[in-house]
Each structure stands twice: as structure tokens, then as C-alpha cells.
Amino acid sequence: MDTLEIKKLFNKHKEISLSHRYITNKHIASLIDNLDSSVTVETIGTSVLGKTIYGLKIGSGEKRILMWSQMHGNESTTTKAIFDLLNSFKEETELSSILKVCTIYIIPILNPDGAEAYTRINANEVDLNRDAQNLSQPESNCLKAVFTRFKPHYCYNLHGQRTIFGVGDSGKSATVSFLAPAQDQECTITPNRKVAMEIISEMNTALQEIIPGQVGVYDDAFNLNCVGDTFQSENTPTILFEAGHFNADYGREFTRELIYLSYVKSLLYISNTDVSGAYYTDYLKIPENKKCFFDIIIRNAKFNNEFLDIAIQYQEVFINEKIEFKPKIEKIEDLNDFYAHNEIDAKGQVVYSETNEVVKIGNENVFVIMNNEKTSLIPK
User: Fold this and answer.
1) What InterPro entries would the database entry show (predicted)?
2) DSSP state of 203
3) Which residues contact residue 305 at a Cβ distance below 8 angstroms, ignoring those fewer than 6 apart?
4) Do 139 and 27 have their domain in common?
5) Whole-angstrom Cα distance, residue 214 to residue 211?
6) Where are the beta strands (DSSP E) in 35-190?
7) pLDDT(119) > 90
8) Which residue in 46, 123, 232, 379 has a CA-CA distance of 20 to 30 Å to 349?
């Protein structure tokens, strides 16, 4: 199935009730209630605050794939794409072949307390992705119990990444990133990792048609407390998905489509291929992510007798069940080694805050003033 066909499927089956960045149990409960009989719905446990953690099983094939999303409550793009995928399975298409070969188990929101509060951590202020060994949290134990019972052949660890990441030194943002996590301190490229790398290579090939140069991989430094590293070390090929930023897409709606494409491409590949890991080497050519982006850089601003750059990063603020982006000045210095999703040329002018004071680090400004003109810093 080519990328154009997948795009058509996405446009047809996109779940329109889910949008932007704030996705909670409240948003998905009715969707789960309306799933057809092809999906088995389970309550696999409850969160710290007693919220339901759902498990969804679809397909009847022998190849078992476990997917979990919103382990970090504020990383919801992959969850939206899960429901787009489930919608696609409701009618007979080329994707139907996946369900004859594979059984897919999905935990759509592992951290419902964090999702509701729009935080990375759970209600006990624990990062579930650092709790794979201690298993100190009910959400961690839910995931581990499903892993043990379901015995997956593949794991999809679904996350979202900040706007700060670029693809190496390319000057392009990392819109989608992957990782085949290490399973030992030496980061050995084991047969198990090669399988994950081969699947990532297939997804990368498809994504390059749409976002050339905007796919990255994470540093594979080993940490057994991370879930992906733990499952990989238990010899289950595990893939980390990271939904990142595309130009002006702060609601992550275009990235959602790219994640959907990645799901479809990888699931078709698994269902149609005996994935041995023999074709892993293209993975090694994907550039590594680098923290080299700001949301805005104002270039060539005058400070006394110097010309410096002003770096602005959006703070994601949760207000009245909506996410607002508050611009905050992070750096004032020479930023020639950094990039921005939006660059503004001050042309040697002094840059003033909303209170008509020269801007300084820590300022939170909706707009700045240059040459007596206001320039908005809020994303459109």
C-alpha cells in the first residue's frame, strides 16, 4: 500500500472527535463504547486516582503486537492516531489482512491521571517510563501484567517529543523519531534489536516521501528502568515512537497523520514479512536527534552596543481543559548554532516587552515591540 492510499484512508477514517493536545479518558470513553464486536474491551486496572485503564484487543492472527500510549499523560498524538487506526479496521480494506495475521493489544491511555492533569508524571509524581524495574505504580503493574499475559512478539512504545529536537545538524526539526532501545550497557546490536531496526527502516522509507530529512533516532544509552529497554532485554523487539513537531503544527494534527502512516506501514510489513532483522542497516543511517531548536529566535537584536539573538520557548499551560502556549525568553546570546521554528529579524532594533522595557531572560510576553510595532509571539 503506497503513501497516497494510506493518506486517503487516514482522511476517511480520522476520528474527528479527537483533536489538539488534550486527550483524556473522558474523550475516548464513548469511542470505546461504540467499538464493534471485532474489538474486545477490557478493564486491565485502575490508576492511582481510580481511573479506568482500558485494554483493547483486535485481530485473530498468531503474530502478537502490544501497543501502549500516553504513558506520559501529556503525550497524546499517538493516542489520536490509534483511534484513527481502529476506525480504519471497521471496513474491509487492504488493512484487513493485518487482522488475519496479527493480534493487536492496545492500551490507549496508560496514565489517565497524568492525561487529565496534562502532566508527564502520574498522580504519585512518578515517571512511569522510569518504573520498569521497581514497578512501584499501579499503571506500571498493569502494563507489565499485560506484557506477561499477552506475550507479544513486538512492542510499540508510543510517545511525543518536544519542539526542541532537530535531526542532527540539518536545520530540520525532528517531526517523527524512533528508537530500537538497547538491551545491555554496551548497546550491542543484538538480533532482537535488528528486528526492531528493520521495521523502523520500513517506516522511515515511507516517511521520507512526505517529510524528507525530518526523521530522527534517539540516543540508545541503556537504562533498564525504562520500559522499552526492559522489554527489549526480555527479547521482545521493541520500538519507541516519538511524535514531534512540524512547522506551525502545535496541535500535532499533521504529525498525527504521519504516526498513522507509520502504524499502517509497520503493521503491514509485520503481517506480510517474516521479519528476521537481516535488513536493519538502513536504520543506522538515520541521523540522531539533537537539542538544537527553539520555538522562536529573534535575530540581530540590539543590547547596548551588541547585537544578540533572543530564544523563546513555548510553555504548555493547561487552562480550562485547553492547552495554551505561553512564550518565555530562555536565552539572550549568540545563537548561531541553534535553529527556530519561527525566526524574526530585529534588524538591529532594540526589542521591548509589553511593558516597554528591554526584554530579559525569564520574560513571558504575548508580543514584543520593535521600532514601535507590535509583533505577536503566539502560534497561529
Assistant:
1) Peptidase_M14
2) H
3) none
4) yes
5) 5
6) 39-46, 52-59, 63-68, 102-107, 154-160, 165-167, 176-179
7) yes
8) 379
C-alpha cell at 147: 506484557
Active site residue 234: yes
* Cα 167–Cα 176–Cα 226 angle in degrees, nearest 5: 95
C-alpha cell at 196: 526492531
* Residues 197 and 267 reside in one and the same domain: yes
Question: 313 with 266, same domain?
Answer: no
User: What pLDDT does 380 receive?
Assistant: 78
Contact 366, 374 (CB under 8 A): no
Cα dist from 160 to 78, 153, 233, 240, 284, whole Å: 7, 23, 23, 10, 22
d(CA 362, CA 111): 31
Q: Are residues 276 and 324 in the same domain?
A: no
Q: What distance in Å separates the CA atoms of residue 39 and residue 61, rounded to the nearest whole number? A: 14
Domain of residue 200, residue span = 3-291
Catalytic-labelled residue, pool 234, 333, 343, 357: 234
Tell whether 145 and 264 lie within a shared domain: yes
pLDDT band, residue 114 (cuts 50/70/90): very high
DSSP 8-state code for residue 148 = H
* d(C-alpha 165, C-alpha 175), whole Å: 8
pTM for the model stands at 0.97
Q: Residue written as cell 520593535? A: 370
Q: DSSP label at 280?
A: -
Q: Do residues 90 and 229 share a domain?
A: yes
Q: Do residues 35 and 89 make contact, with C-beta atoms less than 8 angstroms apart?
A: no
Task: Verify that 331 and 213 share a domain, yes or no.
Answer: no
pLDDT tops 90 at residue 21: yes
User: Phi/psi at 352 (nearest 5 deg)?
Assistant: -110, 155
Amino acid (1-letter code) at residue 4:
L
The CATH number assigned to the domain holding 116 equals 3.40.630.10
Helices H / strands E in the chain, number of each: 9, 17
DSSP helix/strand/coil, 300 = strand
